[in-house]
């Protein structure tokens, strides 16, 4: 059996890991010209971490982990307004850069990656699928996997235009990493955030000399600005704290990640011998904070269903995969929409309420209740 996986990010490489070990021939194609480093800090936990542990990847994750010992908010002068000390009991939340998680997975996959390439056309029948790539080559396979993100080309070709599936959540997001020992020491192993109505800027030290930055901005217009770096400077440059220093070193894409905050709601996840995976069909948004975990878990579920399938007809396996994953994705997406006004508060009253909640969560015994309330979980996907 042969699979073509479009997208060499977290979901695509996680699935390739499984398929290779099940005897499939796998080829990965990736529209980015090179492997994508960096990205924003993520909290990796729940079913995805459980799957990674069973895959033997936990030691690699620990090597690139950047433990968080405190979550807190500051004002424009850098003065702390509220904080929550993260207890050792939360060790099952692995904080790391998105790109580092992708690399841990990619290093365990033997399949070649054809960078700077995506799918141009798809034709399929009962016996297989033929894929034409943007470099002019053609490939034949038993399965085409669209693991190519929110703006999936595979989804567009097989299921229709992007606007049918995207739910815009009214915000833009940006992230990048700067190298600066002084700023890294100033922020330290703490996630620090500065918020004013409709704007949030966060920072977290990555090692001793790097600082990971994240920006959220309320924006009714989903269109990404022509100059995203200039847009960040315009909207966040007046906030104080470390903003003047870090925005003065803001790169342009691809080093700067800039996009809409969206969710993907796809009625169909498969058609014949084409299946969607990861953000292409289940993007839960930055606000839900569970996307990487669900991507790795979904790859586990899909691989398991394919393993149990007959070689002739894959459709029942693809249907079972969607049936297992869809309720979990729907639940986490709803959580993300509920959490949005807390992560990017729309008013000073909401900011004050959030600060008081964080202070109350510091009381003995309240920290775990707080963390459980603000993290989706309890999904039994890895069996």
Automatic annotation (TrEMBL):
Keywords recorded for this protein, A-Z: Monooxygenase, Oxidoreductase
InterPro entries the UniProt entry points to: FAD-bd, FAD/NAD-bd_sf, FAD_aromatic-hydroxylase
Pfam families, per the entry: FAD_binding_3
Coiled coil ranges: none
Molecular function GO labels: monooxygenase activity
Domain FAD-binding: 3-188, 263-332
Highest taxon of source: Bacteria
Protein name listed in UniProt: FAD-dependent monooxygenase
Originating species: Microbispora hainanensis
Source organism phylogeny: Bacteria, Bacillati, Actinomycetota, Actinomycetes, Streptosporangiales
């Amino acid at each position: 059996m042969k699979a073509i996986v479009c997208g060499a990010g977290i979901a695509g490489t996680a699935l390739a890991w499984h398929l290779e070990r099940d005897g499939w021939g796998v080829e990965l194609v990736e529209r980015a010209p090179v492997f994508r480093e960096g990205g924003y800090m993520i909290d990796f936990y729940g079913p995805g971490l459980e799957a990674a542990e069973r895959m033997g990847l936990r030691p690699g994750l620990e090597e690139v982990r950047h433990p968080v010992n405190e979550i807190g908010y500051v004002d424009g002068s850098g003065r702390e307004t509220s904080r929550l000390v993260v207890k050792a009991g939360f060790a099952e939340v692995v904080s790391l850069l998105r790109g580092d998680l992708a690399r841990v997975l990619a290093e365990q996959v033997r399949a070649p990656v054809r960078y700077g390439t995506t799918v141009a056309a798809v034709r399929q029948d009962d016996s297989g699928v033929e894929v034409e790539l943007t470099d002019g080559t053609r490939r034949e396979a038993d399965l085409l996997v669209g693991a190519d993100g929110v703006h999936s080309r595979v989804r567009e070709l097989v299921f229709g235009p992007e606007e049918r599936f995207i739910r815009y959540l009214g915000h833009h997001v940006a992230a990048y990493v700067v190298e600066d020992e002084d700023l890294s020491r100033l922020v330290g192993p703490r996630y620090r955030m500065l918020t004013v109505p409709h704007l949030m800027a966060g920072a977290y030290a990555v090692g001793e000399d790097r600082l990971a930055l994240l920006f959220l901005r309320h924006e009714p217009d989903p269109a990404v600005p022509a100059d995203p770096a200039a847009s960040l400077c315009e909207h966040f440059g007046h906030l104080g704290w470390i903003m003047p220093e870090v925005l003065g070193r803001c790169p342009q894409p691809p080093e700067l990640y800039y996009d809409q905050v969206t969710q993907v709601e796809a009625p169909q996840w498969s058609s014949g011998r084409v299946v969607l995976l990861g953000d292409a069909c289940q993007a839960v948004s930055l606000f839900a904070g569970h996307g990487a975990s669900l991507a790795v878990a979904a790859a586990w579920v899909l691989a398991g269903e394919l393993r149990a399938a007959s070689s002739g007809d894959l459709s029942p396996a693809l249907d079972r995969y969607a049936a297992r994953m869809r309720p979990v994705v729907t639940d986490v997406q709803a959580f993300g929409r509920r959490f949005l006004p807390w992560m990017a508060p729309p008013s000073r009253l909401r900011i004050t309420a959030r600060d008081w909640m964080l202070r109350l969560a510091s009381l003995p015994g309240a920290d775990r209740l707080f963390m459980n309330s603000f993290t989706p979980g309890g999904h039994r996907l890895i069996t």
